[in-house]
Amino acid sequence: MFEALKGIACFVTAVVSFLYGTRIAWACGKKCNFNEKPEYRMHALFESIPSATVVYFFGFAIVFSHFIDGFLTIIVSALTSAILLSGFVVSMTMPELKRKPPAER
């Protein structure tokens, strides 16, 4: 019974960390306006990307601990995945980097 509750709690914690990490990264990408000076954009990116990466890292560490053995392997895999996913979500949501339909070009 305890093992089942532990598994459910880990699953819920990982899902919530992925949701909040996505929310942080999504808001960061939406804030980046290419009409502003690059200093303001960089400030917004340096505020939000590390926090999204930390939240993603926590979720990936939980998920990878169930599938991979070895502390160092889990940490390296979770950190790499968190960095890649936070960068991907931020770049995906930037308004200027979205693909425009042919009619609007």
Strand content: under 5%
Give the overall shape, derived from the CA principal axes.
Answer: elongated
Order of helices and strands: HHH
- Count the E strands: 0
Largest sheet: none
**Low-confidence segments:** none
Task: Average the pLDDT over all residues and give the rounded result.
Answer: 86
Amino-to-carboxy terminus distance: 59 Å
Number of helices: 3
Indicate the structural class. mainly alpha
Number of domains: 1
Task: Compose a concise summary of this entry.
The protein has helices at residues 2-31, 38-67, 71-93. The chain starts with a helix and ends in a 12-residue tail after the last helix.
What does it look like?
The protein has 105 residues and is mainly α. It has one domain (2-96). The protein is built from three helices and no strands. The protein has helices at 2-31, 38-67, 71-93. α1 runs parallel beside α3 (71-93) and α2 runs antiparallel to α3. The relative contact order is 0.16. The model has no long low-confidence stretch (mean pLDDT 86).
Provide tags for this entry.
mainly alpha; elongated; 105 residues; single chain
Strand and helix layout:
Blueprint: H1 2-31, H2 38-67, H3 71-93
